[in-house]
DNA sequence: AGAGAGCGTTGGACCGTTCCAATCGACGCG
DNA sequence: CGCGTCGATTGGAACGGTCCAACGCTCTCT
């Protein structure tokens, strides 16, 4: 017995019981004792080493099975000095595209035997927790930030200590931190050019707030300008909500409040910041007696399942979130291999999903 | 320099090369050395022990700060034999009510200094992973299963080893495993009685599949029967999708295909299995020229944000998912205190959210 | 026959923390 | 002055694994 310094008066029970009982889960030593081998050999079997005789391997496996032994990840990672875990910080799990990103992340990470530890930044922060600190204490091997981050405090510190990738956001540009984001400007151009291609000239954009809203607006304006339609571009501000989209559309499409605007000036197409505000615009259009798409074409963004409802059936820009996740995972793996590589930034090109909410403009 | 065990020939760069040593994160010993105390004293400070002199405490805190020390959770939990972590198994993160449940869970768990480790069962299973095994290896202190579980293999085994609670599902009844679920039958009764209360008599139900669908159908039938309307109850099967709801509604509301059905027999109200199939029914109604709610009343289920779209504005049953999460957390905490208590099952009562999709029936 | 190689197996050091018993110095008391 | 008390501090043994050097055994080669 290697552990000879055990108390002599300890009862020689089956399990080397600690004082008041409470049977602990079996350890590698328990398995070794049961199989009649050393713990080192059990360790070798666990690692699938080829240099173990078949007889002993069987004995060990049997013992593991009988005792229901499960290796202790904490002990393992303590000596390995890596956890095979990456922290994933989410921000609003209500947002469905997160799931796509996670899905993409997962596909690559699992192939590399890494598990994901997810935290909802919103929940944690509300409780005054600092996710960055927690992830560091857990010694995650890497960090993925998905989406926008209300306060980047702590992130910078975490990022300089462990491989970090930002996915789905352009925002915090940090020294050794890669970034994979949707090319919002490109997506907005796609949507706008689709409308222009149909023959629309007077096209409105219902804008969103924040950096994302700005990029999409910029894409819209760029497309209009490069087709010589800058004079026909209208931007009405929204807030990304249905209500905001509704109100913006009423301002765009309703009876002119100033004497300046004539009926012919009414936009024949609207490109909205996102699907939800597009739905608001749709409501407004119908209330105003405009048929979509005959009288008004609509394009949304994000290709959420709202757009897929037959009742709405919106054209929408699909930002390939799954691809964002995959690429982010790729970046993270690369960075785990070479932590000091310069930060890389890449954009993923979205695609336009065509359904039934656009058509060529009617007779002007 | 404090890190004196560094190879003498290693270049003294800002970032020490990863070559042989790879600077490890500071440990409690490093902090102790820097503060000029023993590691035990550092440990005491970390635990906020009152029996440490102020001078030394300050020295230790300063050292921690300067080195950017973060305690190693693995080492800590190894000796503590608990991780202060509960595993949360999700199944389809696309489903928004999960988030509510998580939110509810989180509120209580964080108050008890427990963190949540989330796994998406769908993702894991696809990769041939066994979440139950993983959670056991991580030695989580408890397990929460949220929603339905495709295969319960492994769960039974996990549940008998660690405190487990099922949230949001009636399904696997296991020995020492509590269960907190939505009272679907009650919710369906609420919806049906609301319609009955408005004066509807001929009411249809678009059913869903699986155990949940069955419970909601049963609630519908019970309510109809207890108001003497069993003869007027119609159940048309759907599949929980928009398409299924649409087709079911067409069968219910469209021109009678058999000579038996007369126009007066057409239902004046439909209670759908969920919001999405309710939206399908809404589409069908509008295509058939029926006005909602004047000609047809609709009630959905789950109170998703679909129901909140002004365009749809559906009455819907709101199963208090946040409350489900809270109660599940409560159960888990109780069970962690007394693991051998008998299994408890509780149902959370839903409420009907009234919007604009119902009205008294028109003249018959 | 002895040396060496190769294979299967083993003891022990170590990972970074907590906890306990022991130590140390200062102090009050008989 | 020696002794017990008390509070602050410390060394060392766990915790449950991995890994490495070393070991014994069999086999082969010279």
Automatic annotation (TrEMBL), chains A, B:
Keyword Transcription regulation assigned: yes
What are the protein's UniProt keywords?
DNA-binding, Transcription, Transcription regulation
Domain (HTH lacI-type) spans 26-80
Region: Disordered; residue ranges are 1-28
Record flagged with keyword DNA-binding: yes
Q: Where are the transmembrane segments?
A: none
Protein name per Swiss-Prot or TrEMBL: LacI family transcriptional regulator
Q: Which organism is it from?
A: Streptomyces kronopolitis
